Amino acid sequence: MSQSYASPSSVDRGEEWNTWRAGRRRALTAPTGNLALTETRWLPAGEEPDLDAARAGQPDTVTVTTLRRTDLVTGAPEHGLRFWDAAAPAVRHFEDVEVFPYDPSWVLEATYTPVADARRIAFEHIRDNGGTRDLVVPGDIALTVDGRDYTLSAFDDGGTLLLVFGDPTNGDTTYGAGRFLFVRRTDDESRVVLDFNRAFVPPCGFSDQYNCPMPPRQNRFHLPVEAGEKRPVFRDGFDPQH
Q: PANTHER family, alphabetically (predicted)?
């Protein structure tokens, strides 16, 4: 494994991780958290969303928002509505997210090389039946893990680098379609930190109404990444992928 990242001694990384876990739970169970998404409704081509009409007759627990994507065939913009219910079955049945114990050896420093005129890389999405969507990857992340060199592709997610990665634990002890990790930048523009203890289950692990990107080949590790979140746990046999 490549060199671990040494944070200031005054910072208890284990405590930071516990705080992160608590924040994750609050975000997941929020009125518009991953667990609350009950419907994603795409509108016919050319139709604009009408929030007032969509909200009409909905219970007080429901929030309606808009979203947009690009049609894979025509390239035209598509508009949609999302319905979030604070009392959704997934929220009511949610127990917790299983995690690996905190492991400082999975906090890794890597080299970051920006790419001029940020290129786009095709990412397959879980609900596109093999279709791909091009996402902006503004640079290369290079690191060595267990003696093997990797050049990872993290895409721009609202100004933050988001790594979608896979490893041999997927489908066994962790979520089957891979996991997500936000890449932490440092004061040195050429260095980033990958804290795999903060690897998390993607939104599609909590609701089948999401369309998550899947790990491209270059983002698949050869060894088990036994750090971060494993998979969500629900009471009474509830399955969010129904």
A: DUF1684 DOMAIN-CONTAINING PROTEIN
Q: What's this model's pTM, rounded to 2 decimal places?
A: 0.91
SS3 letters across 167-235:
CCCECCCECCCCEEEEEEECCCCCEEEEEHHHCECCHHHCCCCCCCECCCHHHECCCCCCCCEEEEEEH
pLDDT of residue 5: 54
Query: Distance (Å, rounded) from C-alpha 36 to C-alpha 19?
Result: 22
Q: Are 131 and 197 in contact (CB under 8 A)?
A: no
Question: What is the residue type of 236?
Answer: D
pLDDT tens figures, 146-162: 999 999 999 999 889 99
Element (H, E) at 241: none
Query: What confidence tier does 220 reach under pLDDT thresholds 50, 70, 90?
Result: very high
